[in-house]
Amino acid sequence: MTRAYLDYNATTPVDPEVLAAMTPYFAENFGNASSVHSAGQRARGAVDRARESVAALIGAKPSEIVFTSGGTESDNLAILGAAAASGPPAHFITTTIEHHAVLHSFQSLEKRGFRVGYVPVGASGVIDPEEIRRALRPETTLISVMHTNNELGSIQPIEEIGRVALEADIYFHCDAVQSAGKLSLDVDRCAVDLLSISAHKFYGPKGVGALYVRPGTPLGPQFHGGHQERDRRPGTENVPGIAGMGKAADLARKNLAADASRIAALRDRLEQALLAEIPSVRVNGDRARRVSNTSNLTFTAAGGEALMIALDLQGVACSTGAACSAGAVEPSHVLLAMGLSPDDARSSLRFSLGRPTTAAEIDHAIRVIPGVVEHLRALSPLSASMLSAR
What we know:
Layout lengths: L3 E2 L10 H7 L15 H21 L6 E4 L2 H16 L4 E5 L4 H11 L4 E5 L9 H7 L4 E5 L13 H11 L2 E5 L11 H4 L3 E5 L10 E5 L25 H39 L3 E3 L10 E6 L4 H10 L2 E2 L15 H5 L4 H5 L1 E5 L6 H21 L3 H6 L2
Parallel strand pairs: 1-11, 3-4, 3-5, 5-6, 6-7
Antiparallel strand pairs: 2-8, 7-8, 9-10, 10-12
Helix pairs in contact: 1-8, 2-8, 3-4, 5-6, 8-12, 9-12
């Protein structure tokens, strides 16, 4: 069966060059990077080279990179670490459309006496920087806003928000997990103090990520043990994973422009065909201000969960939203925050393309999706009334 994998925002395959870069550190060069003997120093060299590569991807210095287990830990370390350094009743600002790694971190802080302001978002899925400014309080110590939304692909005005934070002398954290490898990143241009990325979103291995920390940013460690990562993240370094992340960062910088152009053309072709061939379909979020690989569509009266399963049986892999929310009965918090009804939110799918996506995969998706949508709508006793209401 022809298959089309269109869920690259959930995860990406490890690039063959990345795998080759990792392989020696599983067995041949297996030393502990904290050991002083030659085996340990070979491992240390791999970590240092990777740190340089990851720093170059985001316009940072190698000394400003802290390796973690992934985007979730990076977000948690940034937010909970900032809280540990300030203490309650400090006030934080975030948005209603953040990844749960951010939202749940702030919710845990609220239970401990901290205060959090959640800035709303409109139908575009793009935050107004002035809303961030209006949410400021004298006791605000951290702003956390994602760069690219994982469900919509919408790109937030990070540079403008960074200026708001800079003018108010407030620390600024950015979850850039869905941006690294897709958009050009520069921590100084964005005026961020903390920035999270994850290797498996740009063809690196799972289980490794990084947090950029601007010098002078107060950050309390969330783990305790050794002195690794400048006392920010103790524990024996995942040398194969870190080496792989470094190689993936090198490839991302090399392929960024070419990937974006080719993938955007394929995404637009898929989207335009579905809008033309299927009635009552709409694109969620700002169609111009979004990353090149993502399309979030509402298929009215087609039930996203059933549609996703039916498409998988026909060889099309996509998502109803965030992968870590799979199996949840609640509609997407992102789509609800934008003003979609629960029914429409439940009838939405995310298609996300990647470097390996081919024109043949897009052709297969275009052939399959209209028929599956029509079939599911025919099975729904409410579909006729819902469609006539549009």
